[in-house]
Amino acid sequence: MTTRPHQMTRRALLGTAAAGAMLAAATLPAALRADEPLRVAGIYTVPVEQQWVSRIHLAAETAQARGDITYTFTENVSNTDYARVMREYAEAGVQLIVGEVFGVEQEAREVAAEYPDVAFLMGSSFLHDPALPNFAVFDNYIQDAAYLSGLIAGAMTESANIGMVGGFPIPEVNRLMHAFMAGAREVNPEIRFQVAFIGSWFDPPRAKETAFGMIEAGADVMYAERFGVSDAAQERGVFAIGNVIDTQADYPDTVVASAIWHFEPTLDAAVAAVKGGVFVAENYGVYSYMIHGGSSLAPLGTFEGKVPAEIMELVAQRSQEILDGTFEVEINDDEPRSS
Fold first, then answer.
1. CA torsion angle for 201, 205, 206, 208 (degrees, to 10)?
2. pLDDT digit string (tens) for the chain, length 339 residues
3. What are the domain boundaries of the chain?
4. Which residues pair with 196 in a beta bridge?
5. Please, which residues have CB within 8 angstroms of residue 80's CB and are 6 or more apart in sequence?
6. Between 3.30.300.30, 3.40.50.720, 3.40.50.2300, 3.40.50.1100, what CATH number should domain 2-138 receive?
7. Do 198 and 227 contact (CB within 8 A), yes or no?
8. Of the candidates 219, 264, 225, the residue with the CA atom closest to the CA atom of residue 55
9. CA distance 109 to 244
10. With 180 labelled, which of 23, 66, 216, 331 sits at a CA distance of 20 to 30 A?
11. CB burial of residue 63 (10 Å; 0-12, 13-18, 19+)
12. Rounded to whole angstroms, how far apart are CA atoms 181 and 334?
């Protein structure tokens, strides 16, 4: 478990934040307290460099740079240690705790129930529970951008064979894969998909080896839901489509396009709700929709002019229709299969 705090160490936070919070509450008018930076902590089971968590981390750093929050975080927290770290931050006077509880759902909700005055915004596969009003959920509903990246992938494959390597077949991953597949099939209904899950959120070597097998089986475009897939694509000279972050700078001849997650709208909405005293249990996943600025298709960069013009016209058309609300990307949380 690694703590890399901003502003103060977590040990110092534990020793001083709770006392400071009580003093502030006793001496500042409510209106002024609302203008104070919100104390936010992130709890992550993987390194902050991991693509999904990196977007949360970036949004928190952005909010801190604006002066909206103070931010500290702990990374590489095991599932067995997660509840303890939650309690430590809650006891320290943190007002909003952000994290991902896919593997510790029940324990996390039990901790939240113990601290009704602390707001919890947690990545979760489950619906929000109004009976636990301080525990809101989110995930990366970036199916809009994933669908658009699928349109491009459908145009770039020559073998009509696309490989897809994911972490776990949970709704947050499944819906993105299905949206991507729908986009690719819209361009070429004959495309075949090879689908596999590596059983880890962060195992680049395993993802790379899985991708190698798909490329050997004929895939000439890889959907890189996990780190390691683009490395395999680069080494074998095939294309890759990125997910959550834009890695084209690292793979300029390989990564054609990426579906990007912007966590800023999600975090900003939660911070505003806590400051306004109106934070409740609800689904913050909707802030990942393109219409809220929560996702986008990355610029083509080095592949500008290399994707057929008619496909880019279709991408532009569909993008505008998504924003207008006249086109809706289907959300399918079922586990995708090879086909």
1. 100
2. 554 443 333 223 323 333 333 333 332 334 335 579 999 999 999 999 888 899 999 999 999 999 999 999 999 999 999 999 999 999 999 999 999 998 899 999 999 999 999 999 999 978 778 889 999 999 889 999 999 999 999 999 999 999 999 999 988 899 999 999 999 999 999 999 999 999 988 889 999 999 999 999 999 999 998 889 999 999 999 999 999 999 999 999 999 999 999 999 999 999 999 999 999 999 999 999 999 999 999 999 999 999 999 999 999 999 999 999 999 999 999 999 999
3. 2-138, 143-261+293-324
4. 165
5. none
6. 3.40.50.2300
7. no
8. 264
9. 27
10. 216
11. buried
12. 13
Asked whether 118 and 134 are in contact (CB, 8 A), the reply is yes
> Can you spell out the DSSP letters for 246-293?
--TTT-TTTEEEEEEE--HHHHHHHHHHHHTT---S-BGGGGGSGGGT
Whether 2-138 and 143-261+293-324 share one fold: the answer is yes
Which CATH class, in words, describes the domain spanning 143-261+293-324? alpha beta
Q: Could you tell me which of 218, 223, 157 has the C-alpha nearest to residue 187?
A: 157
CA distance 227 to 237: 17
Residue 203, pLDDT score = 87
Q: Which amino acid is at 83?
A: A
Which H or E element spans position 70? strand 69-75
Is 167 in contact with 130 (CB distance < 8 Å)? no
In terms of phi and psi (left: phi > 0; alpha: psi -120 to 50; beta: otherwise), the region of 244 is: left
